[in-house]
């Protein structure tokens, strides 16, 4: 879920984004946790109805990533060239802090191999699709947020599989080559397709932008329903431990991301952006990969993360927005 006015808004974080797609994105990211909670409840109440939809998860994720690509503009990529140091720092922080925390949390809580692999996979995923909207709400540096999210997504096929193999390989077998192929098909190609559509039919796409955050939110909710339905029995015994793992993983990620920005003297707005680019993950991708390469149980941390990181992100954004 991106707001197309992100680059412009970042020039003055105190200037409200009054565009239709900006308002729609903010409403969607606010309602999103409730949608995901309802989706998870549906999966728990009637698992037999939805558990057969696991094969559709990669295609559903492709829809989310296509929507992300459609909201991209050439300015997003120009922002990387304008601030390579800040973007590079954000990228390194993202792919070092969250994977490392995933391994530490999984090991420290002595999680089962399936859950441990799932937590680590969440940590190895690229930035979350709602991170730039939350950064905007926090009066952070939205241009930096968009740049880091864009680069982390584009590089995911090269970084996520080997990181998962390195850190999760001790818990479960990891087919990194197959994972690369899956990320190319479900992430990079849909994003590129969306970008091409935006370039070729920008005038028509602009009219549809307010709808895209809602389409992404609804699609991710369906993914959560399928994931929860596939592991409904295991959730009853593992939910508490998974929730604790997710809260620790996300909370430490937000704190260390912000700290990395402050230590690097990027300034307050950029440090806020770093917090969300590190602490918020593309949990839809993690759920899809876990379902395809491990098991529905391994996808459970990603499903819980989908709910929690939007709640914690909204709370952190509200706190930041009141802090000058």
TrEMBL record:
Which keywords label this protein? Membrane, Transmembrane, Transmembrane helix
Q: Where is the composition biased (Polar residues)?
A: 1-18
Signal peptide span: none
Which topology term describes how it sits in the membrane? Multi-pass membrane protein
Extract the ranges annotated as region (Disordered).
Answer: 1-23
Q: Which InterPro entries match?
A: BilAc:Na_symport/Acr3, Bilac:Na_transpt, Na+/solute_symporter_sf
**Location in or out of the cell:** Membrane
Q: What's the protein name?
A: Bile acid:sodium symporter family protein
């Amino acid at each position: 879920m991106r707001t197309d006015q992100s680059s412009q808004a970042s020039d003055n974080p105190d200037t409200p984004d009054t565009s239709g797609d900006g308002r729609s994105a903010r409403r969607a990211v606010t309602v999103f946790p409730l949608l995901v909670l309802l989706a998870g409840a549906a999966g728990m109440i009637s698992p037999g109805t939805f558990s057969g939809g696991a094969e559709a998860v990669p295609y559903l994720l492709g829809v989310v990533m296509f929507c992300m690509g459609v909201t991209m503009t050439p300015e997003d990529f120009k922002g990387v060239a304008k601030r390579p140091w800040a973007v590079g720092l954000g990228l390194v922080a993202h792919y070092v802090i969250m994977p490392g925390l995933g391994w530490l949390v999984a090991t420290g809580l002595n999680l089962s191999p399936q859950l441990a692999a799932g937590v680590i996979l969440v940590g190895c995923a690229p930035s979350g699709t709602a991170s730039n909207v939350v950064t905007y709400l926090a009066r952070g540096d939205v241009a930096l947020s968009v740049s880091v999210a864009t680069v982390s997504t584009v590089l995911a096929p090269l970084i996520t599989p080997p990181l998962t193999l390195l850190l999760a390989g001790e818990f479960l077998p990891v087919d990194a080559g197959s994972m690369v192929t899956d990320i190319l098909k479900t992430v990079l190609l849909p994003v590129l397709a969306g970008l091409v559509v935006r370039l070729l039919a920008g005038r028509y796409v602009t009219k549809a932008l307010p709808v895209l955050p809602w389409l992404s939110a609804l699609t991710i909710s369906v993914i959560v329903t399928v994931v929860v339905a596939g592991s409904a029995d295991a959730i009853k015994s593992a939910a508490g431990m998974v929730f604790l793992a997710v809260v620790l993983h996300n909370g430490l990620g937000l704190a260390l991301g912000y700290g990395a920005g402050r230590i690097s003297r990027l300034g307050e707005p950029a440090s806020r952006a770093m917090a969300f680019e590190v602490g918020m993950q593309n949990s839809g991708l993690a759920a899809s990969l876990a379902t395809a390469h491990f098991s529905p149980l391994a996808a459970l941390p990603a499903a819980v993360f989908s709910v929690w990181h939007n709640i914690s992100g909204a709370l952190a954004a509200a706190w930041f927005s009141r802090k000058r």
